[in-house]
Amino acid sequence: MPTNPLSRRGFLVGVAATTALGVTGCGLGGSSDSGGDTSGPITGDVTGEIKFQTWALKPKYTDYINGMITAFQKQHAGVKITWIDQPADGYLQKVTADAAGGTLPDVVNMPPDLSYPLARKKLLVNIDTAVPDARKDYLDNSWAAYELSGQSGSYGFPWYLNTGPTFYNKALFRQVGLDPEHPPTNYAELENAALVMAQRSNKQIAMLGLTPVIADFGLYGVTVLNGDGTKFTFNDSKGVEFVEMYKRLYDAGALIPEALTANYTGAGTKFMNQQIAWAPGSAYDLANFKTNAPSLYANVGITKTITNTGKANMYVQGLSVSAASKNKPTALAFARFVTNAENQMAFAKLTAIFPSTKGSMSDPYFANDGGTDEGRVRVAAAKQLATAVNYTPVQWSDQMTTQLQQKMADAMQGKTSAKQALDDTVAQCDKLLAG
Questions:
Q1: What is the helix (H) or strand (E) element at residue 370, kind and residue range?
Q2: In 3-state terms, what secondary structure has residue 189?
Q3: Does the pLDDT value for residue 269 go beyond 80?
Q4: At residue 21, does pLDDT exceed 80?
Q5: How far apart are CA 300 and CA 303, in angstroms?
Q6: Are 403 and 416 contained in the same domain?
Q7: Between vectors from CA 263 to CA 254 and to CA 237, what angle results, nearest 5°?
Q8: 213-228: buried (b, 16+ CB within 10 Å) or exposed (e) per residue?
Q9: Residue 390's closest CA among 112, 2, 13, 11?
Q10: Comparing C-alpha atoms, which of 266, 244, 243 is closest to residue 256?
């Protein structure tokens, strides 16, 4: 389980930058002989051995995972589950290599954007056809995260979810005369506050520490991808407007120069060091502030995600089943068991995540904040998840992220116009998509 706080591409106990690799360029050739698409439900005895792979859950959640494994094995005599937990560093590369080599474990923890290239190569089981009654148990928006645009089928059981909130530094707001009890609630207000902060601090305090990622375009109201998932569309007038706003902020000193550096990951540290005033985060981050940045914690404000759509961003992790599994009935049954409402609810009470199962959000745990900051974050995030969507298309890859970041840097520095930067990015991303 990844552990970089305040990153916008992952989550759970910390949030990691986890866009999937451009798998089609990393050794994944033709389709798997066994195929990911099934002609009908997969049935059979739940017995035999399977391997279950997770992502950095040891040692903190060893008892929880082992407890689920023991419970499942007691329910199904003759089943043996071998749990493999891989470290966060290099996890996606390892999954890719295993898939290419035909050694992918039976059940694998992966985000939607890694499932996409594997599913395209028919390396994952289509859950919709293999277990047709499963969809009804999960939130529609979480199930949709594992669907492929323009194709039928879904390729993962949603496991756990997360979303905002946004954190801001009340002390820095006060320092420049901004109302710390009334933070910005829309993009126009955020721009105005950021410009005031930069001007009144003589460019010594920046509001923002990151250039926009593709999910931010979605939050702004930009249509990122066409309906059949074959072309990117974020170079429209709305997208240009969004980049031009960031250009104004950069010119004014409201966006730190380091944000233009390729693969920059220091924004979370700068927020914790009270060098920038605004940062997206997850429910985990507040506990991190309390432990590792107590002076920030004393001044941290909590507000909802800014969005023009009325829907916050949702991060998803799930369990996919290998198409090469020699024991698919057991693999599917176990993946469904791990992600059922009871087990997800137990996990949510151990750490700062949220269940993907229908009805779970009505539990009092997500409505009663207990009078604590952590509780307020949990309740606010739970409310957002009712309508949240995954704004990052499953087709989006690490290579595309690099293209966008490079062109945003060019636009911020005036090397190209916002329109040209987006046109160039879309052209390159379309080539990668077609490949």
A1: none
A2: helix
A3: yes
A4: no
A5: 10
A6: yes
A7: 60
A8: bbbbbbbbebebbeee
A9: 112
A10: 266
Q: Are residues 341 and 407 in the same domain?
A: no
Q: How far apart are CA 357 and CA 159, in angstroms?
A: 8
Please tell me whether residues 407 and 369 are part of one structural domain: no
| Sheet containing 278-280, strands listed edge to edge, beginning at the edge strand earlier in sequence | 278-280, 166-169, 300-303
DSSP 6: T
Which backbone phi and psi does 216 adopt, to 5 degrees? Answer: -65, -35
Query: Looking at 359, 385, 411, which one is the last position of a domain?
Result: 385
**Arithmetic mean of pLDDT, 146-169:** 89
DSSP label at residue 225? B
256 domain-assigned: yes
- Both tokens of residue 154? 């879904």
Note whether 287 and 422 are same-domain residues: yes
What is the span of the domain harbouring residue 237? Answer: 168-311+394-434
Angular region, 48: left φ>0, alpha ψ -120 to 50, beta rest: left
Is the residue at 365 inside a domain? yes
**CA dist., res. 421 & res. 113, Å (int):** 24
**pTM for this model (two decimals):** 0.84
- One domain for residues 405 and 259: yes
Is residue 270 a part of any domain in this protein?
yes
Residue with tokens 């002076």: 295
**Segment of 5-9, 217-221, 351-355 carrying the highest mean pLDDT:** 217-221
Whole-angstrom Cα distance, residue 129 to residue 138? 16
Sign of the Cα torsion 373, 196, 311, 357 reads negative
* Predicted confidence band of residue 12 (pLDDT cuts 50, 70, 90): very low
**Cα–Cα separations (whole angstroms), residue 69 to 65, 253, 354:** 6, 53, 21
Band of pLDDT at residue 17, cut at 50, 70 and 90: very low
253 lies in the same domain as 211: yes
CA dihedral (19, 56, 287, 349) positive or negative: positive
Phi, psi of 25, rounded to the nearest 5 degrees: -100, 15
Query: In angstroms, rounded to a whole number, what is the distance separating the alpha carbons of residues 146 and 127?
Result: 10
Q: Parallel, antiparallel, or unpaired: how do β-strands 79-86 and 166-169 relate?
A: unpaired
Within 176-319, where are the H helices? 187-200, 214-220, 237-252, 267-272, 285-292, 294-297
The CA distance from 215 to 334, in Å, is 32
